[in-house]
Input
Amino acid sequence: MKILVTYASAGTGHFKAAEAIYGYLRFQDEDIQLKLIDVLQKSNILFRNIYTHGYAFSVSNLRPLWALGFWITYIKLFKIVIKWLRFIINRLNTKNFATFLIKEQPDFIISTHFLPSEISSYLKRKQKLNSKLVTVITDFGIHPFWLADGTDIYIVATDITKQQLILEGIREDRIKVLGIPTESKFLERYNKNALFEKFRLDEDKFTVLITTGSFGIGPIEEIVDLLYKDVQVLAVCAHNRRLYKILKNKNYLNLKVFGYIDNIEELMAISDIIITKPGGLTISESLVMNLLPVFICAIPGQETQNLKILAHYGIGMYPKDIAAIKKIVIDYKEHPDKIRSIKENIAKIKSPNASREIWNVICQGSIGSTC
Output
């Protein structure tokens, strides 16, 4: 059986979800021919750079414009025009990816981004591809870009996400509520005492983890200044070297500063709450680790949709200003019963075994098993 796990390197979430699925599948059957493919690496260089750097620049510097563009795509008239413009632009710039798919003729394509789903669907309609297409939606809400006629099964995070798809005209039998895939390291049980010792932290103190993705954006410094006297703070600056130097130079007693790390799961394991952006993968990782989220710096559109759906389940808070963050943190510190209550809500929707369930969908015949 040949399986392609595809994604687009626009933001880290799509890649991390694809990597999680790939990491699980490669240990399931020695007869699987498995490849992990970035659609943008098989597009022309100009398109690739606009897609990746344009996204990062827009969500960081042009948020009002990004929000306007996001919501315009929901308007019926604009939706039709934009759909065809996108189709033409994507077809012209991803010919190498299309040629690759036709040559490979995989049994299954698992896509964690709408671009490879769109191209695969087009090839299926033209009868140039016979693959079964599994589209894994990596946010809790649904944007029209995710809709692809050739998708055999949609994998979604929650029942609300499923209902949104049904409202968009997708048949219920084509939707599986399995969650957003996370890497296996988030499923491990960690020795917290050993981790507190490893990071030289006080295990008796209320611990807050602050992380906002690979760029270390947002008011991290201001939040640290607000919290360090009352709680133990773990601040992850990622690639933001300027922020790292600023925080290190403060020499706060209750502060541990980290640059780019690949063991965020260890910090999650010893934290009481996490202050972070509401990206789909970050949320999924936090929920799997039973970690209470407080959200900041939501990207208008997909991340504000995530907030609304999480709020429906009684999970996460999105303070209106920085000052409110301290009140929330202190309230959780002084009322552990509130944390326990929210963790009960988390237990109802977290999906620690999403990658395994996707494999089961393939193997159990839901979409033409070849196992």
Remarks:
- The first helix runs from residue 12 to 25.
- The chain has a mean pLDDT of 92.
- The longest strand covers residues 2-7.
- The two ends are 7 Å apart (CA to CA).
